[in-house]
Design a protein that fits this description.
single chain; about 230 residues; mainly alpha; Cathepsin B, Chain A; 3-stranded antiparallel beta sheet; 7 helices; 7 strands; about 35% helix; about 10% strand; globular
Length: about 230
């Protein structure tokens, strides 16, 4: 346990701490989905640090302490987290959740995020989505679903998000405080893309509902949108 709190890693410090052998979160017993999610959420950003410190009304303090002292703080201090620390968290989630296999089986990352954010820590949903004028939907992350695009060989995240929103007729109701995106799922036998280039910034202008935008023809405020 590391009880001293550390800020997220950035720039040269991130390279020094996270690069090399025995770095990151050690995998064990189908933990890859959780390891990747935790690393993405906490190693180099503080956007969700409220999960570690905020006294939520429904918050489970034991899970919060494990997440902060056994996973996030060691990751930011030394760049390495032992598998048994993640297993400790998985065992607690198995006790709190409706599923008995969190400590052994591979789960969908969205299932993990919904459990720890909603049921365990009581965080409000991060995203509000609307599809084709229907009622708003609230969620904690967005999983990219899309058909194979022949013109996308090595896409970046910006392209994937835009294609996915367009194909599903989705819009963001408001600018999210945190936009967690799950890349297209890969199986052992099939991969839609061999590589995905990270977009260091994400432009969500065209993804926002009722957002004033510039007409690509005349430059005035647009009144119509063509998919």
């Amino acid at each position: 346990q590391v009880r001293e709190n550390f800020p997220p890693l950035g720039n040269e410090r991130a390279v020094q701490v996270l690069q090399g052998r025995m770095k990151g979160i050690q995998g064990h017993c189908n933990s890859c989905y959780m390891d990747a999610a935790l690393f993405s959420l906490f190693s180099c950003t503080s956007v969700l640090d409220s999960m570690l410190f905020k006294p939520f009304p429904l918050c489970d303090r034991n899970v919060q302490n494990i997440l902060r002292d056994e996973i996030v703080n060691p990751l930011r201090k030394t760049g390495f987290v032992m598998a048994r620390s993640v297993m400790h968290l998985r065992e607690q989630l198995t006790e709190k959740g409706q599923y008995s296999s969190f400590a052994t089986a591979e789960k969908d990352p969205e299932e993990f995020l919904n459990l720890i954010m909603h049921q365990i820590l009581g965080i409000e949903p991060l995203l509000k989505l609307q599809s084709g004028g229907q009622e708003e939907q609230e969620c904690y992350c967005y999983q990219i679903f899309m058909d194979k695009q022949e013109d996308l060989v090595i896409p970046d995240v910006q392209q994937l998000v835009e294609h996915s929103f367009l194909s599903s007729n989705l819009k963001l109701v408001e600018i999210p405080s945190c936009f967690i995106i799950q890349m297209p799922r890969f199986g052992k036998e099939y991969k839609m893309f061999s590589k995905i280039i990270p977009s260091l910034e994400l432009d969500i202008t065209d993804l926002l509902l009722d957002s004033p935008r510039e007409c690509c023809v005349c430059g005035d405020v647009a009144t119509l949108e063509c998919s």
